[in-house]
């Protein structure tokens, strides 16, 4: 294919990636092409990423779930992160982001790309800052561009780029309760303060787009000023950055580069609808990729639940890609098991929204589950479950064996089992 998915779509062409994504969604390739052409959907699909199963991200399609993995400077290893990758894929993640920082991050990223059949995203400013030895004065725009180009050559499918944080917004962020909570946003802000200059990604956005166009990398416009607590939600800093992100979406599209927009963060439940609708308007319908949002700040240890509540609402009102949150959020780097828990929590959120939105195929799965429950067909129930392994494990733990099955479970017991009673009444009525 010559050019990007967006350029192909605009030229009326249906690419192999569009066909594959359409098959996975159960829709026509032309429907996918039209959405990509309008910019309302993206197919993160770098041709250098071999063995990739292309997926389309957009509100017209099934809600997707992203899992963040990657080592921190203090914990984990390449082997540990590969275990997390397998856990995320097994649990059903649609995309994976490698957020590694510290030693050996290039090696980890290359292993993740080689072993990952779903789109892989990164945050290039992390590697640029590592190569600058964590010293802000050694970071410059050329180093950032070099890292973007190298990661694009390696096959990264989408990149979070915090190009919307501008100097004039920093005083707004400093008035907040929690300031800046985005790692990438904080690096850019420190650089602007140190040199008294504008965001290097914003200033060299044309060069960034040239690299992304060449490798068909999808830009994911990072929300460097996302709110980090309920008190900072929907404030002037957040919405000032959003205006810039809208401008960058339009410039990216004109350059033939696919763009999506990242969103908050920590948002009270009643503000989610307003936030999503505002993003859709300002960013010309670009796919919205939200982190949670977390709807209360007082649930550490259970933030996957707090965030899944917000994610369900976000997807229902228009978000296309949900970035998972694990039980370790705000506390530490997640383990492989916590990665798995986070992905499952967000698949539940995504699926709940898809049912309410009438996404083809979503409700049918629930109807099949209801039939399996009525038949007491435990095998079918575990097959249909979003986490069949967990469901089967709990069933066994309750003392039941799957091959022999049961016409009730230990929850109510045989004589109080309402489903069993319904089956009997139905049999007699025949
Ligand atoms: S015992 Fe209770 S929970 Fe279990 S299948 Fe019957 S009605 Fe459902």
Give a nutshell description of this structure.
The protein is α/β, with parallel strands linked by helices. It has 19 helices and ten strands.
Key phrases:
eight-stranded parallel β-barrel, two-stranded antiparallel sheet, alpha/beta, 10 strands, 430 residues, 19 helices, single chain, binds iron/sulfur cluster, globular, TIM Barrel, 2 domains
Please explain how this structure is put together.
The protein is of the alpha/beta class and 430 residues long. The chain has 2 domains: 41-357, TIM Barrel (Alpha-Beta Barrel); 364-429, no CATH class. 50% of the residues lie in helices and 9% in strands. It has 19 helices and 10 strands. The chain has helices spanning 5-10, 16-25, 29-38, 78-91, 105-115, 124-131, 141-154, 170-174, 183-195, 200-203, 205-215, 236-254, 272-282, 303-317, 336-357, 362-375, 378-384, 388-397, 418-429; strands at 41-42, 57-58, 64-69, 95-98, 120-122, 158-161, 218-221, 259-263, 288-291, 321-323. The strands form 2 sheets. The chain has an 8-stranded parallel beta barrel, surrounded by 7 helices. Strands 1-2 form a two-stranded antiparallel sheet. Strand 8, helix 13 and strand 9 form a beta-alpha-beta unit. The termini are far apart. The model has no long low-confidence stretch (mean pLDDT 96). Iron/sulfur cluster (SF4) binds next to helix 19. Iron/sulfur cluster binds at residues 408-409, 411-412, 417-420.
């Amino acid at each position: 294919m010559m050019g990007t998915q967006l350029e192909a779509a605009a030229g009326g062409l249906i690419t192999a990636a569009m066909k594959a994504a359409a098959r996975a969604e159960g829709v026509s390739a032309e429907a996918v092409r039209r959405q990509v052409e309008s910019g309302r959907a993206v197919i993160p699909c770098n041709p250098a990423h071999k063995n990739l199963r292309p997926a389309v991200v957009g509100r017209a399609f099934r809600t997707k779930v992203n899992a963040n993995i990657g080592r921190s400077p203090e914990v984990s290893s390449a082997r540990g992160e590969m275990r997390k990758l397998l856990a995320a894929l097994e649990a059903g993640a649609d995309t994976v982001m490698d957020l590694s920082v510290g030693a050996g991050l290039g090696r980890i990223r290359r292993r993740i790309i080689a072993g990952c059949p779903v789109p892989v995203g990164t945050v290039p400013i992390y590697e640029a800052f590592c190569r600058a030895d964590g010293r802000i004065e050694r970071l410059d725009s050329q180093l950032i561009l070099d890292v973007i180009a190298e990661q694009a050559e390696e096959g990264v499918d989408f990149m979070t780029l915090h190009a919307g944080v501008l100097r004039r917004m920093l005083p707004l962020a400093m008035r907040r309760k929690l300031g800046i909570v985005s790692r990438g946003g904080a690096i850019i802000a420190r650089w602007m303060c140190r040199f008294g200059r504008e965001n290097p990604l914003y200033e060299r956005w044309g060069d960034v787009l040239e690299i992304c166009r060449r490798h068909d990398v999808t830009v994911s416009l990072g929300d460097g000023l996302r709110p980090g607590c309920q008190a900072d939600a929907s404030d002037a800093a957040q919405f000032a950055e959003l205006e810039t992100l809208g401008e960058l979406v339009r410039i990216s599209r004109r350059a033939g580069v696919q763009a999506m927009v990242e969103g908050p963060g920590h948002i009270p439940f009643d503000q989610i609808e307003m936030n999503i609708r505002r993003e859709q308007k300002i960013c010309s319908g670009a796919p919205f990729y939200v982190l949670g949002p977390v709807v209360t700040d007082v649930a550490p240890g259970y933030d996957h639940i707090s965030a899944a509540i917000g994610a369900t609402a976000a997807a229902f009102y228009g978000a296309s890609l949900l970035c998972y949150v694990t039980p370790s959020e705000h506390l530490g780097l997640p383990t492989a098991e916590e990665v798995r828990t986070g992905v499952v929590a967000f698949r539940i959120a995504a699926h709940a929204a898809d049912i309410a939105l009438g996404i083809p195929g979503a409700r049918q799965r629930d109807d099949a589950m209801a039939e399996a429950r009525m038949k007491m067909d435990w095998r079918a129930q575990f097959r249909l479950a979003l986490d069949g392994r967990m469901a089967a494990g709990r069933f066994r733990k309750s003392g039941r064996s799957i091959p022999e099955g049961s016409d009730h479970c230990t929850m109510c017991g045989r004589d109080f089992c309402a489903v069993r009673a319904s089956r009997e009444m139905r049999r007699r009525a025949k």
